[in-house]
Fold this sequence. Notes:
With 464 residues, the protein is of the alpha+beta class. It is 21% helix and 24% strand. Keywords: Coiled coil. Residues 393-420 form a coiled coil.
Amino acid sequence: MASSAAASxxxxxxxxxxxxxxxxxxxxxxxxxxLGILKRFIGVSDLAAVRFSLPSQLLEPTPNLEYWNYIDxxxxxxxxxxxxxxxxxxxxxxxxxxxxxxxxIKGKPCKPYNSVLGEFFRCNWETxxxxxxxxxAAFGEASAKGGLSALKPSSxxxxxxxxxxxxxxxxxxxxxxxxxxxxxxxxxxxxxxPPVSAFHVSCPEKGISARGFDQITAKFTGTSVKVLPGxxxxxxxxxxxxxxxxxxxxxxxxxHLGGLLRGSLSVSVSxxxxxxxxxxxxxxxxxxxxxxxxxxxxxxxGVIFRYDPENDDxxxxxxxxxxxVLARLNGPWRExxxxxxxxxxxxxxxxxxxxxxxDVAPLNVxxxxxxxxEQQAPNESLHxxxxxxxxxxxxxxxxxxxxxxxxxxxxxxKARERExxxxxFQPVFFDHATGNGGRPDLTDKGREVLERAQRGEWxxxxxx
Length: 464
């Protein structure tokens, strides 16, 4: 995440705009220019803290707060908490987790606009309630009877195909005879130093909500940019109101933005991601494998197991005793991930006992429902950056860069005014700018905005 620099610091380094032309650049040319800028920061411990400003021709016409969200497949989010068994609910959370980065799988990484302090973004998704119900007990019963004939196979032609597919289908609008599920999202840039935004996602009909702080640290290694969660980014916290308030904490693994030298950006993931629920005492470790002997493999090896929240000392897949294992996961996260029940190593599990938890191949990023421009506030992302966006779309890059610099300088002037007055910025929609264990709470205004969005109302009258 990024936002403009404050008054107490020097202005962020910028690229000389005199060399900016209104000629359209190829993706390869953009990357070569970007690489040239990054080389200035070799050895800098945190690129996100440096806050350098890029010329507009290197940016995608997308606000940062719009880009950073995790609801690429809203039906996967709405499917969490459906099952009665704790293991199955953990599998539902894992299924959602494996859909949250469709934007990288289906599209290219991009550099959006740096967020400014107080900027906010809101949207809705409307989706079908069509995520398959997970019932692992049925798998075990069918397997004990000598087969899974009662369960529909995902593919009759592929002998290695899993017997059961629990992947979410492609997102689609509800049919006339079915009411859509509405998911509402609100995020606000709450801090400058460090750059942090708070977010809240809500699906009241299913009793599901999610919240957290987004903050990254980044380091240029010379060939790639390594991105890690910042100190205030403690993951995504999902709460299931209809399951006694169960809370799941999902932590982010390191990611690598590569392909700078090749002129083709790509995202890979490495190391560990963790998902845990203290109430059910079930935890999941996902080990991401980035590189194989000859190529990038983008695979995960995972385990779901019983753990002690008071003695949470298992951090690697191989650390988990077989006696505690409930299920294992394996497969390429950009394609299809399988799971099996029980402690048996995945390579020893028969194909008919391997089940598809997600197949992202047929999925695409779901479109957002956005408030009309006339009902957006001046500091609402799409409205705030509209001048820059329109200029980029019209390939008027010099104008876009000038507008962008004017907006950023205006924010620095606001910071100087706060410093002179001895005041600090207070978020409008969230009680916490940072901290609170990574769980930002909504203010009354934040709750009102989300409640209106749930009713399909976008007016901010009486709120701000």
